[in-house]
Amino acid sequence: MASNERIDLTQEQVQIQTLSPIQVQFVRVLGMSGPAVEEEVRCALQENPALEKCEDGEDSFDAFDREDSDSDGDDSMMSGDYSGEDDYSDDDPIDRYNGNNHSADDTYYTRTVVAPVDGLVDSLDSQLGELDIDDRQKIIGEYIVGNIDNSGYMTRQLQDIADDMAFQSIDVSVAEVKYMFDKVRTLEPAGIGAVDLRDCLLLQLCRKEVTHIVKIATEMVKNYFDLYSKKHYETIRRQMSISEEELLEADNLIKSLNPKPGSVFGGGSDQEIYITPDFRVEVDDDEVIHIVALNRIPELQIESSFSAKNDEKNLSRSEKEAQAFRKRYRDEASTFIQVLKMRQQTLMEVMTAIVKIQREFFLTQDERLIRPMILKDINELTGKDLSVISRATSNKYVEIGCGTYPLKFFFNERPKDDDDASLFEIKAKLQEIVDSENKKRPLSDEAISKLLEEKGYRIARRTVAKYREQMGIPVARWRKQIKG
After folding, report:
1. Helix, strand, or coil here: 379?
2. Do residues 150 and 192 lie in contact, with contact meaning Cβ atoms separated by under 8 Å?
3. Which of 173, 231, 262, 357 has the fewest CB atoms nearer than 10 Å to its CB?
4. Is pLDDT at 88 greater than 50 in this prediction?
5. Is the model's pLDDT at 125 over the cut of 90?
6. Calpha distance 215→212 (Å, rounded)
7. Torsion, CA 476, CA 264, CA 195, CA 168, rounded to 10
8. Do residues 78 and 99 lie in contact, with contact meaning Cβ atoms separated by under 8 Å?
9. Sheet harboring 289-293: ordered strands across?
10. Cα 272–275–277 angle (5° rounding)?
11. 292, 33 contact by CB (below 8 A)
């Protein structure tokens, strides 16, 4: 070793926090949605012989399966909530009570459908079958339909489709593909098979009864689409030599068309998409708020033959191995039961804290009354870690009289640290300003910022632009209308 080389040994004390196996499992299960946990429980019951449902929850799965026997088997369960009543005073205006969802008079919750059933591809294929075409043409038509996206637009060149079919040993010409492409574009809804927005609008206009206004609208889209998309209405009116009334009627007709004809099929999905609320919030006549847990997880217990009471001493080797087998499954089952209880209690505590902070909203169901709220606010009420609160509110929903809301919906920061106005309140005012503006001369973001300041909301222009984009409100020039 060279003389200038040396080895130094130092001792340093470092504190490292590690999660126990039960904490790791709890964190994972906490972040799951209700249906995902229900599936987790179902798998655990099948895989762990030491785990079983309590007698009073014996029919929980069966009742749900019978209720949804016509569905694709999306499993769900109910359970009562594991609430810590000592955490809240008797005069608290929030009443939490156990669902006790295994009784004979259970009310099983109906899931919320958020997407339609019929699919775009299925509909177009069905319509192809009604056309007067031969089997070869039907195959070509199905290839074309398969290249139409969820919005109803054609995504491939006709030559590419012909080449794809050649790879499948189906020799077709571009002319044959073009013939069937034109056929597909006659199917419902109007606009299907368009190659761009202009083409989509023209396909719909050509289905209209020919009138003077339809002719004007068709010419506007066909020959003046660039000017029209930029809202240069006066230039269009002069070049087409039409009156302001004719321009307005043609504009209204074009705006009545569907720019995404495939969207009537819910984005082309052929499956129902469900949201299963985790909670229901009800308000009685005395303005007492009740929180009900809606999950269908049955109460679980250790199967009697795996009980620790059956453990013995002075066993043979084979008997010890059998006893170790039972203990391993018993420990896994016990941990799983504990994790489910921890999850349910955490969810209830977090939901209760949300209702405490957003009490005015739950009483009135007026989104403008939603208060500024961040994870730290829930932390102060529950003592839960911020990461735990984040997982407890992810993919969780609450059902109230006016609809179903994700728990994340209720979190919103203050625009400024010293401002007690919520984003919902500010956005509502912004919407009021936009709704009441002169549509011939829409307000700029700077002008909206000044009007908001006059109403007591000091919001910078860039913040106004951010909120406007979040609300789906276009910039001023795109809000301009012919007639204000």
Report:
1. helix
2. no
3. 173
4. no
5. no
6. 5
7. 150
8. yes
9. 94-96, 289-293, 279-283, 397-400, 403-406
10. 155
11. no
Question: What per-residue string of b and e applies to 299-335 under the rule 16 or more CB within 10 Å gives b?
Answer: bbbbbeebeeeeeeeeeeeeeeeeeeebeebbebbbe
Per-residue pLDDT reduced to its tens digit, 377-428: 999 999 998 889 988 998 899 999 888 899 988 887 666 555 556 677 788 8
Closest CA to 99 of 279, 284, 274: 279
Contact 347, 390 (CB under 8 A): no
Length in residues, the chain: 484
C-beta neighbour count of 14 within 10 angstroms = 4
R_g over Cα of the chain? 31
How far from each other are the two terminal CA atoms of the chain, in whole angstroms?
A: 88
Answer yes or no: is pLDDT of 182 > 90: yes
Q: What's the CATH number of domain 423-479, 3.30.70.330, 3.40.50.12160, 1.10.10.60, 3.40.50.620?
A: 1.10.10.60
CA 296 to CA 258: how far, in whole Å? 41
Q: Tokens in use for 423?
A: 């984003």
Domain boundaries, the chain: 115-272, 423-479
Q: Which residue is associated with the tokens 């949300």? A: 354
- Containing H/E element for 290? strand 289-293
